[in-house]
Design brief:
Elements: E1 16-20, H1 26-32, E2 38-43, H2 46-61, E3 69-74, E4 87-93, H3 102-112, E5 113-124, H4 126-135, H5 137-141, H6 152-161, E6 164-172, H7 176-186, H8 194-209, H9 212-225, E7 228-235
Parallel strand pairs: 1-2, 1-4, 2-3, 4-5
Antiparallel strand pairs: 5-7, 6-7
Helix pairs in contact: 4-7, 7-8
């Protein structure tokens, strides 16, 4: 399920797109569906890139991709191996909350993005994330876990201090917030909880089938319960 709204990226044929911290490739795959793009999926964890490659191969077999080129690379967001002004669009979804030196990461994002081009950033929303921290010590102490919680205004100020211009924001994944509260309450690694398993089945069903009823509920409650804060910036 996408966190970033691709309609707000205004992708054009020939655009170079970086999905930094691509995870298992949800945004990379969507970028590769856009005609004529040159897409890079990058992550610090090599196993994530393996999963992304498998999914890309699946979509290639379906002839579902329209990009000109795809590359997957293992890298650190605080030290990106690209020339300055290299990309037309940069996606950084659910990454900064994991990074100790987030200021260095943001400086790298502004460096590699072309002037007047778009950066899309998402992080966990403050109050749903705060509940997770209160419910579970394990949640923020797990390896590669979340080390900070951002407030919207503070994150915008930090991004603007590096030369980004704030454009728009929204919230995503309202159906996911209660699921994570439930996991934090019951135990993050529990496999025998009926309530967690049933909720997970609901989310998988929503992801695979995209029924109109859950899509409507998700959109309706995003302003209130949306688990992710999504921000769009332009480089000055």
């Amino acid at each position: 399920m996408l966190t970033i709204d691709f309609d707000r990226l205004h992708i054009q044929p020939g655009d170079r797109i970086l999905d930094i911290g691509c995870g298992e490739g949800r945004h990379t795959i969507e970028a590769c569906r856009k005609k004529g793009t040159l897409c890079v999926g990058a992550d610090f964890i090599f196993d994530n890139l393996i999963e992304t490659r498998k999914k890309l191969e699946f979509h290639q077999e379906l002839k579902d991709l329209s990009c000109r080129a795809i590359d997957l690379s293992c890298m650190d967001v605080t030290s990106l191996p690209f020339k300055s002004n290299s990309f037309d669009i940069v996606i950084c979804s659910e990454v900064l909350e994991h990074i100790r030196n987030d200021a260095k990461a943001v400086s790298e994002l502004v460096r590699i993005l072309k002037p007047d081009k778009i950066l899309a950033v998402s992080v966990p929303r403050y109050w749903p994330e705060k509940i997770c921290w209160r419910l579970s010590h394990e949640y923020f102490n797990s390896p590669m876990g979340h080390i900070r919680i951002y407030k919207k205004a503070g994150l915008i100020r930090m991004m603007e201090s590096f030369g980004f211009h704030f454009v728009f924001s929204h919230y995503s994944h309202s159906l996911h917030a209660p699921f994570w509260w439930l996991k934090c309450l019951k135990g993050l690694e529990r496999k025998d909880s009926i309530s967690i398993n049933l909720y997970h089945r609901l989310l998988v069903w929503d992801l695979m089938k995209k029924p109109s009823v859950t899509r409507f509920i998700d959109r309706l409650f995003n302003p209130i319960l949306g688990k992710s804060l999504v921000l769009y910036f332009k480089k000055s």
